[in-house]
Design a protein that fits this description.
The protein is an all-alpha fold. It is built from seven helices and no strands. The radius of gyration is 21 Å and the shape is flat.
Length: 171
């Protein structure tokens, strides 16, 4: 026999489907077990974005592979802060050590992003010089630079912390 659900029951089911209640339960238990030292995955994502950007900039004609590889690296980097070893500011188990690790990781990432941005601006200025490059490459370079900086900001703290700290014995 089929029973009908009321509107509040259906709304509860839709909220449970999002996974937010289970995430809140993990947060209430102060369980940081999802934190892992990801040593090679951030590096792979940085290389993927760089390879895709290189294919877009130096490819002979418009293509599909370059943007797909770059988007793989960019979108994959969005998950690094979630699963990496750097704890979020809102974590209930954040202590002095975690704050220091977080501070060092983000200072490293911001310094690397600043150096990349300076190099990108100089490189773009060099290719803008009259007659050196076709306009398509200039547009691609201008569009890829912010994506590279965002990819670096998402992956470098995880990469730095994963290589500079030791995993906890339970991992």
């Amino acid at each position: 026999m089929m029973t009908r659900k009321t509107i509040p029951e259906r709304l509860d089911d839709s909220v449970r489907w999002t996974g937010i209640p289970s995430a809140l339960e993990v947060f209430e238990r102060q369980d940081d077990s999802q934190r892992r030292h990801l040593r090679w995955l951030p590096l792979l994502l940085l290389v993927a974005y760089s390879a895709g950007a290189g294919m877009m900039l130096f490819g002979e004609r418009p293509q599909i592979v370059g943007p797909l590889v770059a988007w793989f690296g960019f979108l994959g980097s969005a998950f690094m802060p979630i699963f990496g070893p750097v704890k979020a500011w809102g974590s209930l188990t954040l202590d002095e050590y975690d704050r220091d690790v977080r501070r060092r990781a983000f200072l490293f990432a911001y310094a690397a992003c600043t150096m990349f941005a300076m190099a990108a601006f100089i490189g773009i200025a060099a290719i803008v010089a009259p007659g050196t490059q076709e306009p398509r490459r200039i547009v691609h370079a201008l569009l890829l630079s912010p994506g590279a900086i965002l990819t670096m900001q998402a992956t470098l703290p995880t990469l730095y912390t994963s290589w500079r700290t030791r995993p906890v014995e339970g991992e």
